[in-house]
Amino acid sequence: MEKPKVVVAGPFLPEGIKRLSEHCEVRQWTDSATIERALLKEWIADADGLIIHGKIKADEDLLSAGKKLRVMAHAMVG
Questions:
Q1: Residue pair 29/9 in contact by the 8 Å Cβ criterion
Q2: What is the residue-level pLDDT of the chain in tens, covering all 78 positions?
Q3: How far is residue 24 from each of residues 17, 37, 45, 47, measured CA to CA in Å?
Q4: What would the 3-class secondary structure string for 12-37 be?
């Protein structure tokens, strides 16, 4: 059975990535700068899940690029 694909668009705790990787194919943006929107849209084109962080706006334009997305989460502090 193929693992679901999850895009993590920013920093995330290593333990969280480790646990997520046990069940999913994870592609993570690890650069300190925010991922370019066009690149993020490419990455989510075939992803099942998306975890965003920081200043990324999860609007209709972004989410419409992820035709297979089943879940989206915004990782925040607070």
A1: yes
A2: 899 999 999 999 999 999 999 999 999 999 989 999 999 999 999 999 999 988 899 999 999 999 999 999 998 766
A3: 10, 23, 16, 10
A4: CCHHHHHHHHHHCEEEECCCCCCCCH
Strand order in the sheet with 25-28: 25-28, 5-9, 49-53, 71-75
Inter-residue contact 70 to 48 (CB < 8 Å):
yes
How many whole angstroms separate alpha carbon 70 and alpha carbon 66? Answer: 9
- State pTM to two decimals: 0.92
Tally of CB atoms within 10 A around 50: 25
Question: What is the widest separation between alpha-carbon atoms in the chain?
Answer: 36
Check if the beta carbon of residue 43 is closer than 8 Å to that of residue 34.
no
